[in-house]
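Known limitations

Files may contain more than one protein. Parsers should not assume a single record per file. Below, a two-record file is shown to illustrate correct handling: read the sequence, read the token line, then continue until end of file.
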Amino acid sequence: MRFFVGIYRLVIAFFCFSGTYEGWLLGVGNRWVFFTFETNAVLGLLMVWAGAASLLKGIQPPAWLKGCITLYIVITGLVAWLILPPADPATTTHLYGMLTTTMVHIIAPIMAGIDFLLFDPHRRYRWHYSLSWLIYFPFYVAFVVIRAQIWPNAGPGKDPYPYGFIDLKTLGWQQFGINIVTYALAFFVLGLVLFIIDRALPKKTPLTVS
């Protein structure tokens, strides 16, 4: 089972890195302003660590970090599903016969969710993790806004804002602030849901790798 889980986690990393290869290999730097690129890149690195630790019986990533990255990759999938428009096959990059958006918006989030449910030891999270996990979001928003002020035509598509719901120029400060608070609250609730699921699941099962 340890071997299977290790390979499974490395497959997740493969999809994460493949789906973001424009930033890694082609030097398309403006791709890194996307939440999707950042969360998948970090998940890929985490899964290399977790996969290698599974295969070599090494030290697994700490619970707080694993939970944090799991939360944000699930958010990535939910935002893509519920809020973002569908990817246009005519303009979206293809790799291995599929859209890269399929890798980062669907495959990686689902596989990471399964990894959390089946292979992680549980009952390790604390309720306040739901608060501390939010630390990434304000840094991401600050990065987007500051970048837009310094390079207003940085793109992609000469638009410095990757998503309409954080487009300060279009929304204005009031609606921008409302959106940020709304999303932060939603992320906190999702963090609590992750905590509750972790508490509800058995500490270990025959599939657990620790």
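...continuing to the second record:
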Amino acid sequence: MNLGIFNRVNLKEGEGGGMYSEWASLASIVRHETSDKESVLTKFPDSGKDVAMSIVKELASNIGLTQAPAPSNLATDRDVLWCMEVICYGLSLPLNEHDAIRDCVHIYCDWLTVLHPVPNVSVPKPLIDDPNLYARKMIGHLHNLFIPRKGEGADTIRRQAVLCHRVLRTLQQAAQCSTVMSHETWEALLVFMLAINETLLAAPTIKDDVGDQLCERVLSVLFEVWLVACGKCFPSPPLWKTLREMAITWRHRGALISTWSRVCLALTHKLLGVMYPPTFPKHQYYDSDHWNVPNDLTDETIVQSWFRFLHTIGSPVDLSRPQIISQTPKFLQYAMVSDTDPSSHPSLHILPLNFLVAIKGISNLVDAFLGVMSEALVLPEEEHKKEIPTPPPHRRPAKSFSVSSVSQKGGMSKSALISLGRTMSSSTTSSAAPSVSSMTSISGSWEVSSASGQQPTLLRPKCNSLLHLFGEWLFEAAQVGTGLYHNPNLIREGSGRRSGSLGSAQDSLDLDTNSVANRYQAGRATALASLCRIFCSKKTGEQILPVYYARFYLVLMHGLKINEKREVEEPLISILMHCADILRLDLDGIQIMVPHILEALERVLPEKDLNIKINVNMSELRRASIHVLLSLLPLPLHFPNLTIKELIGGHGDKPLPTLGQLKTRITNLLINALQVESDPHNTHMLLGGLLVLVQETAGIEQQSQDKNSIQNSSYPSGHSASSPDSKQFVCEGNVSRVPQIDLIVER
């Protein structure tokens, strides 16, 4: 099954609306339809409250709260409909009328068991006769409970949140166990879930409001109910389109990004079960904190659901662009009453973290397809204290998550991605703007570790397939902060021109984008690491599209750049940690990266104490760098006349450099690295490399002397040592010695 073909149908919104372009959205209905949410009692505000409180109190006494439940005395449709008007009004009362609202919630939760195989005894007979009709009405009325009330205190809001949790739990149970729900009822339930998420999450984040307290819970229920619907009554294209349109307006919420990542990873494992045999390696996150995907999904449903959920939040790279995230109706309403630009709203200061979590989620999907373990995002120890649980402590779901401490090995901590998203979202969702320093230092909060030593499974898909699916997002994420999109010749892929047009991008290299780059360095480094793993998984003889090579080398070149302060930044570290074998593979044109790689190694290896702001194991970083250095050793010895072309621009009339000219730099780097190395394993590797260098150099010099003496005595007239035949002979003799370096390193 070639899943890469899906990317052909998921065109960008600017090119016609994507795969849902021919379907109407239900967004306006979800946002503005109020006919089922308002009671006739709203027209009598003075007396309606008293009527509602007295009626719901008596109805609640019959459902078993304080005494044994009894059959309802509501015998006709008219009786039930009249009472439902009262309950609808009761759900919209001010929160200080908590008892009345609570009774309304208990009544509807009891009556919604009409969707269960065995309804409660207190459910009125008209509901049992037509469960779907009344269930749709009750679901519509319950929306009133989730509407935020202005001016309420924190304790009152918490009590509202508890009632909302009760409703969500009831609807979850009904969706999972019901066998009588019709297509119209499923659609009403999904529209309700979209509506309450829109009501609570679309507005800019305000700390401790009901939206902040319910954020994670309403999102998890939305995705869980949606997955159940995929198995029982697959949502229509208008619903999928509405989900995507609305989710795009919630992207300032960290819980959305972490929940989306978990759902996509869980569906990816289901997808791998469809595509590959059971022996395919299982991703380690799936063993600990995985999302529960219904077991009754067919193979085709899994494929369709996976691809649609993957594109639910649009392009994850937009999370690095506050100007795009803030272009929503709620943020524009904020701009109308404030002099501040909506892109500067305090709730958007979490975007660097959301960007990191989203790209890490995509990286996990790539690792799952490659059959390798993912590295975890790990918070510093002090961040543990900032976590505020979304559900009340006694109502937390069974799937709870914890943040791993920084002392753990990066590759073994559990669900750090998810806990990271929730912890940081709760610590940054404040009505006051966080300090700039606290947000720009996000990149320094994550431990970077290497997955070196892991071999992708032999069953892995081709690189082109992975790049068809994730390449666009990863390439764009790897370019965040580099200024590439400021160049009209390097516009986003899919908007009319390929970003393979590299010739006139030189001006973009000098753009001052440090202020943007520093905030999103962590996500950019994660994207670079994932791209390195994809290209380093190339099989022998496998072909990769030239446009992917070009884009990879472009982002690699930018990631290896040294800034003016000569700091070792996160992208550079990420590349070195994940491309130890990049020069040992048969990647087309990789020699153009040799000068850039060598320059980066010259910054890392000769320094005993590097100034690095992120948590990284220095021995592992140096070991990965030494691997790259050792793979450089044979190049100037065996291919001294091979020219190195420029990826961008050129030298004009200047001759192109050759690999042979790098021999002195590589030799000096090897010696300097050996002088400051303290790790025994790394020292052993460097000594092995030095031995190879000496042996190879001596062997080549001896060959050259022997050939010169033979040529002077044996070559007939008209032949010389510089003839094509002799050059070919020398090259063939040299190439045969290249594998010696790997043998010595292994020894």
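Parsers that stop after the first record will miss the second one. For reference, the second record is described as follows. The CA atoms of residues 406 and 595 lie 34 Å apart.
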